[in-house]
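Re: duplicated header lines in exported structure tokens

Our pipeline writes sequence and tokens for each protein into one text file. With two proteins the header for the second block appears twice in some exports. Here is an export where it did not happen, for reference. First protein block:
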Amino acid sequence: MKARIWALCLVFVAFWGAAAEAQEPPFGYEVTQMVMEGQPVEIVFHSSEALDTLEVNITRLKPKDSWAFSRKNLGGGDSVVFTLEQGPGNCSYKMDVRATSREGEYEGSTTFEVASMEPLDIDVDLSVDLREGTLKFSANRPIGRAEIELFAEGKKPIDAVEKDYGGNSSKAEISWTPGEDTPVLVNMKVYDTYQMWRDIQVFRLEVPHEDVVFDTNESMVRSDQEPKLEASLVFITETLQTYDEVLIELYVAGYTDTVGKPADNQKLSEKRAKSIATWFRGHGVKVPIYYQGFGEAALAVATADEVDAQANRRAVYLMSNSKPATSTQFPNASWTKVK
């Protein structure tokens, strides 16, 4: 599962010594020493007094490149930002600076290094039952710490947990004390040992509903069954409004009992799930909608073959921000999107 990523840049601060005079330099600078791949390096100069000119020449040693920057008439307390493209991996730079003011001329040189990191990638195990109170996850490098906030239906706060992993592993889990309220939304922030982090949301809510009754071997939604879907539509609409910051999708799964041939039941459950999903699309649900039929492959109540069991003729409407993981409820992940 993927989500948006943010990085906290490590900053190196230094003050320049005057080459020609034993005076405090009229400026300082900051360099971002770690960036994500594709991000520029920022060098920020701060003037402590008025500068007539500021000239900065930077050379990247490998792969070879150079940049020249200049500014005139900087006031005391002004800041100016110069940016340059970082090469892959770790890069070394040499920087020469010359500044002039009414007080004199300042020159100096220094070197610095900048590391380029791959974006922090986090995979969350979505096959777990959040009611059990544990969420497992892994990263593409050692994990420093993690923070989670848990919310129940209606955005009711449940718990907030922080855990420090010390960078000992790229696999981790975080737990909370299960209570009466089932977590619906988990807001998660995972940090690596460089203080880069990634924000992740896990959203999962099964829509309470009354199952639609179809005619034998038919998949068309009868008009007398539409009030059941209309009630579900109200719940879905309200949920989308409550959690409008989450990219929610709707998944409709269909199931049958064991009466008839398994292959026929599979096709029938697929058609019925598609009919329900299409009904929601036609009645104003704008988020992505997917459907799938499981036939008699995921019985709610275990029965022998050719048993007429109402409990097994059912559907599941799941609101989630990611494709459901394979499980006993969803034996495979071959979901079809409604256009």
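Second protein block, exported in the same file:
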Amino acid sequence: MKPAKPDLTPLWVAFKERGDLEARDELILNYAGLVKYIAGRLIVNLSSLVEMDELISCGIEGLIDAINRFDHTRKVKFETYALVRIKGAMIDGLRAMDWVPVSVRQKVKELEKHYAVVENNLGRSATDQEMADALGISVEEFQDLLRDVNLATIVYLEDFLPGDEGGDKSKRVADVIRDDKAEDALSLLELGESKQMLADAISRLPEKERTVVQLYYYEGLTLREIGEVLGLSESRISQLHSKSILRLRGRLSKKKQQMVM
């Protein structure tokens, strides 16, 4: 039998209503395990060049931000609220590290462009064969290319969800995929057309790719765990993830260009 979790309500009241910084520090200590848990799940899909300590450091910043922003009077679990901000802070940290080689980023951009052009011409999602034909390579070479760009696509999707004017990256993919009646609907509305375009693009993904996006970005499953759910290998899930992100970024880039014209 698991021990009961301590009631942290007095700490929330002390910090939020009386500005007690010692209470805030106690809250940080109580929830620090959440940061390590999220870092452990994220790092299994990342390059060996990324250190766990770096993710945890970024995650702690996200935790502090979540504690500072959390409204303890609402009937929302803090862990649910904090997960998005902690993971988001880690992803922002990965971007800042610039750990993806230039050659890989170039491959990602080329694939995005080809997905956008091919699928616009077809009016539907392109198959691997159709993409390979457009690139002038074999299906096997195309799939090798997807493996090459997999690490880069792990953190790219959220680039299409702008933060506020102060650079806040609080709006995440989970905010778009979730469909609950959030009390802070006004703040979600600030995402405007970008949110609607992303939600629409996700809804039009092939079924398996859409499921992978939902399980990875909303449910927080690792690629290995998603493979177990769908009965597919981790490498196959990795490929589905890469294709889904490349399709989404290609479609959204094209839409944004059309809006500017």
